[in-house]
User: Fold P-type Zn(2+) transporter from Acuticoccus sediminis.
Amino acid sequence: SVPASIASALSSGARRGLLMKGGAVIEVAARTTAVVFDKTGTLTAGRPRITEIVPFGGTEKAVLSLAAAIETGSSHPLALAILERAKADGVTALPSTGAKALAGRGAEAFVGGETVAVGSPRYADERGVLEAAAREAIARLEADGKTVVAVFRPGKLVGVIALRDEPREDAADAVRQLKALGISSTMLTGDNARTAAAISGGLGMSYRAELMPEDKVAAIREMTAAERVMMVGDGINDAPALATASVGVAMGSGTDVALETAQAAILRNRVTDVAALIRLARAAMGNIR
Ligand code: ADP
Ligand code: MG
Assistant:
């Protein structure tokens, strides 16, 4: 039978929006030595907004109408921000077909008889469309903690779009609380290293950047050799990482896939609830001994 202190921790946690799927989760959570956070939607609210549109040759409007054409139908937070801005500015998307996501890289579609794309600077570079002036503009925006995406046609950069996704209000406090418990915090992101450094530095935590979904799993697997790792995430693409960690925790605002895969959930979307969950688990285990 379940020890009384475990049963009471499960129910008092549930009342505070700290959901754990069974007593075994408490045992593992209590021994957490490192917490790994997904960036977008977990440490940040996941609602990026466009701050700058930098055209290369044409107009801001041309960049936006092409980007919107590609992102039509996409539910990625960056796509939603682009579509929202186009709508707010009264910019109509160019007609497009075959729009599809390129996981961890961007999205593409056929527009005006050619394949056009919106994607990470790294992906744009792989496609050979970044020249010195573009690289400089991108580096400057990224050093400011902004996420930059490039809009390009075959062999030609059309423009770059900078977006900012603000950290959740309590994210820095959460890192401090975990530190007080002797637990390290690391941010994992598909975003570039400059943006990651600017955001994680402000929160007092370390980071691993430019990770493809499978790299996030590998990073966690690596860490679990020496640490007991709690992974906190919200997205469909976080599910494999949540499953690989010693214990996976889903944000309540997250996708169903994340909530199903994780062994625990923090329903009120407060990052500090990660520390609260660990304190609760430690107290429950302390009462057994
Ligand atoms: P994260 O780890 O921040 O959730 P993703 O793995 O979803 O990021 O994406 C990594 C990078 O790929 C983004 O920072 C962006 O540059 C690019 N990207 C992915 N999807 C899109 C999209 N739909 N539109 C534009 N860029 C995208
Ligand atoms: Mg996310």
